[in-house]
Amino acid sequence: MTKALLLTASLATLLLSSGCFLSKKTNRTKESSAISADVEESFRRRWVEKRTAELTAQGSSGDAAKTKAEAEFRERFGYTRAGNK
Asked: Is residue 70 in some structural domain?
């Protein structure tokens, strides 16, 4: 009986004193949508530049390669804000 009571008291103490259970969440400011838009635009720009270079190396002209790279980006990443441009 003593062991069961001791075990129950120990488990209750552990449950009630855990850091996650009683911790207070801090009020962090949410990430600005401007930051995520900048990151997506940076990704789009770098991806298009890389793909344009690849297409140019394969023999496409510069303008045609850039146009094709932008179309491919919109097709692959259309779910992003940068893909909708």
From this structure: yes
> Is the pTM here over 0.70, yes or no?
no
- How many structural domains does the chain have? 1
* pLDDT value for 79: 85
- Interval 54-59 mean pLDDT: 95
- At residue 17, the pLDDT reads 67
Burial 37-58 (b: 16+ CB within 10 A, else e): eeebeeebeebbeebbeebeee
Tell whether 21 is covered by a domain. Answer: no
Q: Helix H segments across 18-32?
A: 19-22
Say which residue the tokens 């103490």 belong to. Answer: 13
Flag whether 82 is in a domain: yes
